[in-house]
Amino acid sequence: MLWATSPACTELETLVLDWLVQALALPEKFLSTSTGGGVIQDTASSATLCAMLAARERATNLEVNRTGVTAKLCAYASTQAHSATEKAIRIAGIGHENLRRIPTDAHFAMDTDALSRAMRQDRDAGLLPFFVCATVGTTSSNAVDPLTEIGPLCREFGAWLHVDAAMSGTAAVCPEFRYIHDGIEHADSYCFNPHKWMFTNFDCDCFYIADREALIRTLTILPEFLRNKATESGAVIDYRDWQIPLGRRFRALKLWFVLRHYGIEGLRFHIREHVRLAQQFASWVHEDDRFELAALVPLNLVCFRLKSGDDENQQLLDALNGSGKLYLTHTRLSDRFTLRFCVGQTNTVERHVSEAWSRIQDEAARIARQ
Amino acid sequence: MLWATSPACTELETLVLDWLVQALALPEKFLSTSTGGGVIQDTASSATLCAMLAARERATNLEVNRTGVTAKLCAYASTQAHSATEKAIRIAGIGHENLRRIPTDAHFAMDTDALSRAMRQDRDAGLLPFFVCATVGTTSSNAVDPLTEIGPLCREFGAWLHVDAAMSGTAAVCPEFRYIHDGIEHADSYCFNPHKWMFTNFDCDCFYIADREALIRTLTILPEFLRNKATESGAVIDYRDWQIPLGRRFRALKLWFVLRHYGIEGLRFHIREHVRLAQQFASWVHEDDRFELAALVPLNLVCFRLKSGDDENQQLLDALNGSGKLYLTHTRLSDRFTLRFCVGQTNTVERHVSEAWSRIQDEAARIARQ
Fold first, then answer.
1. What is the Cβ-side half-sphere exposure of residue A37, based on CA atoms within 13 angstroms?
2. What is the Cα–Cα distance from B350 to A274, expressed in whole angstroms?
């Protein structure tokens, strides 16, 4: 898939991704008019892999691309980071033993002292700290890693900073939630998923990079049957060289429709409403003595549980999901079984949230009677 | 994306991919009821990467996944194989210097004597030949690598055989074209793209593997928030572990519609018609003294050129593509600029092909007059 295959596909993608830099108030270095740019990936796991590959090649001056992994590379992510990082480090030929899982603080955000110690220890041992994946809104609990502290550490050790804001990034369309991105100016790459919380059909991950040449150098190949004047002029973008597969779809179109349909003000309205509903749900949990909140609720994800124990919470989850009326997933926080309630879909309104809470209360009562 | 996320999505995919094993008369080891199975990938480049990763881990007993690339692995593909192999070997951390490009015979098919020599030489030098990508219908010229000879070599050297039949595989729905797959019983993995020549919207690559455990072991990860009874029972398929990204779309549905709409007889009718039209076009080229065929025409791709020279052929391509009436791509065969004419789209009928030939003749006349 070249620019020449469908110029509109590429041009609209560039346009829409530049719009989103402005909408989320991301650093200007992610604009296509700067040294960087954005590209639509299928999912955040692919974005993480692309970031790691570009980091791998930056750290080794393209040596891995040429001769394979020989240097002793180390990557870092918190114990709460998405498993995509582990999948990526295997695919990249670096091996999961070289992924350090950094402990978190009481609120499940990365402990930067521990990160600093780990990077120093690796460097002292002759290893090369090359990549840190920080999370803005972890999958388990929506914890936000402190980019303002992680960024300077990455610079000190020469490591690439990738920021994964898969669900939560969308919140930054609202100025009052932009604090989640504090320190984002340190990031070498960043992604968020409009298919998670921006009313866009799966799949649609927006991946931004500060130095697009680092990515393109890593992934470009140009056999004869792909040579063409537009590409060779250097005046156009071949997004094929910004991603794992060589082919690609016209994903920008659905995103363009979303942005034109809602507008920034429309998006803000819905995001604020989702956060309000989640906070309301959290307050109900807090007021019910049988339940407790298992984590802070910065945005639209509520982690909660019955105080009684893991068995009861597993029973509660099974009963709710078995009802066919609502669907929750679970996680473990502080080694305790925890339910996750997330408000983020296009048609979710107050009624759905209050009905869900009623059902949860009813099931909790039934379990207590057993 | 787990089985539990959408059981229908997974179950229909398994069903449809099993149907296609029968439709193309592929080996039974690719059936889900056997030791293998199929999965829909976005593109053949991702299928090649997945095959290479599974091969890498089989060759090193999962050591690369654990500790990174250390063994000296070598992969093989012909000089005519798709550039996806080169992209994959870089991503996999093995390095493109460890991809041997094997020369081809007079008809652009892999020279198996050269393959044998290369593998022996590498093994004697202490390297580990782990992966061969054979092509059934190369992109440039539709050449078919001799699987019956390549297969035994792979077995001798313990290398994984991946067969890339991205466009041409579809031809095997017609019994008279199944010879293209002679030797496919040696393959560890195989892919073809219904989005190329089976009337299915992009993206849709069908990737088959003989030993699904080899693939799953390579790509699986299971954090707490993805744990669920269905997955842990082992009774269901989590296709997330059969591909690079963790999320996935319901691609099987469009493929199901295509198969139900056309039926096998309908597909055969159109495939035969496309081959007939391409052969007719080839005969017109052959009969026109100004032109020559640049390669054999086994199926629906015609490689041809003006006898006069590269400049004239480049002019011809530019004039045709600039007209907005038809679009050809080019390649280089025997180091000469060559035009590619392919019949394979849903609505292409005889009129389009004859009109295209008229335009090509007219432009050739205009160029000769200059």
1. 23
2. 56
Asked if residue A34 has pLDDT above 90, the reply is: yes
- The reported pLDDT for the residue numbered B134 is 98
Measuring CA to CA, how many Å separate A229 from each of A3, B341, B364? 10, 20, 21
Retrieve residue A329's tokens: 């997933």
Which residue type sits at A195? Answer: H
Of A256-260, B229-233, B322-326, which has the strongest mean pLDDT?
A256-260
**Helices in chain A by DSSP H: which ranges?**
7-23, 44-60, 63-67, 84-91, 112-124, 147-157, 194-197, 212-219, 229-233, 252-287, 310-322, 350-369
Judged by CB atoms closer than 8 Å, whether chains meet at A68 and B93 is answered as yes
Three-class secondary structure of residue B159 per DSSP: coil
Give the pLDDT band of residue A226 (cuts 50, 70, 90): low
Q: What is the ipTM of this complex?
A: 0.95
Distance between CA atoms of B98 and B86, rounded to whole angstroms? 10
Q: C-alpha distances in angstroms, B328 versus A14, B143, B325, B340? A: 26, 19, 10, 6
Min distance A342 CA to chain B CA atoms (Å): 14
Q: Over the range B230-249, which residues count as b (16 or more CB within 10 Å of their CB) and which as e? A: ebeeeebbbbbbbbbbbbbb
Domains of chain B: 7-250 (3.40.640.10), 263-369 (3.90.1150.10)
- The number of residues making up chain B comes to 370
What is the arithmetic mean of pLDDT over B306-330? Answer: 95
Residue A121 CA to residue A129 CA, distance in Å, equals 10
Largest CA distance in chain B: 74
Residues in CB range of A177: below 8 A, 6 or more apart: A171, A271, A275, A299
Residue B26 carries which DSSP code? Answer: -
Instruction: Calculate what percentage of chain B has a pLDDT beyond 90.
Output: 93
CB contact under 8 A, B84 and A223: no
Which residue on chain A is closest to B46 by alpha carbon?
A245
pLDDT at B39: 98
Q: What is the pLDDT of residue A224?
A: 63
Note whether B56 and B73 are within 8 A (CB): yes
User: What pTM did the predictor assign?
Assistant: 0.96
Task: Check: CB of residue B225 under 8 Å from CB of residue A331.
Answer: yes
Query: Would the CB atoms of A68 and B66 count as touching at under 8 Å?
Result: no
DSSP code of residue B24: T
Sheet with strand A291-293: strands edge to edge: A291-293, A301-306, A336-342, A329-333
The alpha carbon of residue A100 is apart from the nearest alpha carbon of chain B, in Å, by 13
